[in-house]
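Progress against Task 2.4 (sequence-to-structure conversion) is shown through the following example record, which the project officer requested during the mid-term review.
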Amino acid sequence: MSLTTAQRIARDRTRLLGFPRPGRRAIVVGGGAMAARRAAALTRATTPVTVFAPSLCDDVFDLLAERLVTWENRWPVEADLADAWLVHAATGDPELDARICLWAATVREGGLSA
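Structure tokens generated for the chain above:
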């Protein structure tokens, strides 16, 4: 049996820990191998997955080519996280990952900073 791109990338390494909310998307920030694994795992849910990154590794590009994810060719801003039910920061830059996590927490608590 042939594996799909998402199955090949995720290889049962990731488990979905929450249930998607209707009308909300999952966001993966980063375009490397870790981001590819997370995005691939998230495509198993019935929610849209958006990847934010200025560049993509081959595995994320494969997900994009198969229309399993959408791609924003940039890093996100805080307002981009407003409609997310899940945000995963996997940029490889600890400072950027921390900023994304802070934004996600702010949005979850009900407000965007000015």
